């Protein structure tokens, strides 16, 4: 009985720890349905086929949150961008969002407010939003956001976190909302216009999904851009909950730069949580367009082990910052294994995902991400009757020893099944 009591106490301590510091870890899985429809072959790290819903598999590895992007009308995007992955209209997101919610996962919704990709280099206004009057555009954005959120709620896909804009370091709805992070307009845009659009989106979220947390996302191309952006934004609005960051070392630089930025943000905005809403690293074929060469990261070669070490080092850094409570891997589901080349999901392989495009095998980093959260969904493992039983990381009791590789709970301990 002493052994059983210890297990019970340990489980209660785990639950208490989760209550005190909820963290979110997962990925942006916006193309997962397309890969599934193309019959991509997903396997664990040992090459065993993953059966059942991929949501369940991710949960078994300790993931508890998923991010999905939403475009206004992706059918209007260029053929090139559509083949890169611009396909997520509202119907698509309603179906995928419901899967996420039905699996008991946290849902982060990412409004792009465009028909195609938005990032620091492009933020085109949706083709159907034809007015150039900032007041009209702000109202259109507000009404569109309300309509999307209402439909998502009706579909059983209410988001828990919402981004009113993707990587908005240089504004949104160009040209009228095109700005410099440190203040001033670009190409005819103004901060007054941009703030009007952003506040319209925030208001729509507060009205429609009052429980949702609002994430304002920038990216780390220049550290000063991030700090300048939030400083310039402050006089316009403080009505958001989370500072969201994109961090890719091959584009954004050394990990110590991120570490210093996080310290600055925590001291300047102590009331805000911080999330890395996009990150990734290559497990093969380092990108030709990288701003920083692989030689800058000697501990992170473009290999399975290099990607794993990057993940470990990133998590170790993030876990020193108490305000950082979210980590999302960008495009983890990329996997062309088993997909005929004539029906390829994308027009080029992305080799910074968490599956190998050639073999379909999961990369080691997939199994490392749960260490960011520190604990898992093991709340249910809290009675003396569980001794010897197997549980998934989300607390679901299994009928027998698992046959699919992954991390499981047995007798109060995490066990790797290969």
Write the layout of secondary structure elements.
Elements: H1 2-20, E1 24-28, H2 32-37, H3 54-60, E2 65-70, H4 79-84, H5 90-102, E3 106-111, H6 134-154, E4 161-164, H7 191-208, E5 213-219, H8 223-233, E6 242-247, H9 249-252, H10 255-268, E7 273-279, H11 304-318, E8 324-330, H12 370-373, E9 390-391, E10 406-410, E11 413-417
Helix pairs in contact: 6-7
Residue-averaged pLDDT: 90
- Tell me what portion of residues adopts beta-strand conformation: 5-15%
The total strand number stands at 11
- Distance between the amino and carboxyl termini: 31 Å
Biggest sheet record: 8 strands, parallel, barrel
- CA-atom Rg in angstroms: 21 Å
Low-confidence residue ranges? 1-20, 375-386
Question: What order do the SSEs take from the amino end to the carboxyl end, as H and E?
Answer: HEHHEHHEHEHEHEHHEHEHEEE
Spatial order of strands in the largest sheet: 1-2-3-4-5-6-7-8
The count of helical stretches stands at: 12
Q: What is the helical fraction, as a range of percent?
A: 25-40%
Derived from helix and strand composition plus strand pairing, the structural class reads alpha/beta
**Shape category:** globular
Name its key features:
alpha/beta, three-stranded antiparallel β-sheet, globular, 418 residues
Q: Can you offer a commentary on this structure?
A:
The chain starts with a helix and ends with a strand. By secondary structure, it is of the alpha/beta class. The chain contains 12 helices and 11 strands. The strands form 2 sheets. The chain has an 8-stranded parallel beta barrel, surrounded by 4 helices. Strands 9-10-11 form a 3-stranded antiparallel β-sheet, with no helix packed on it.
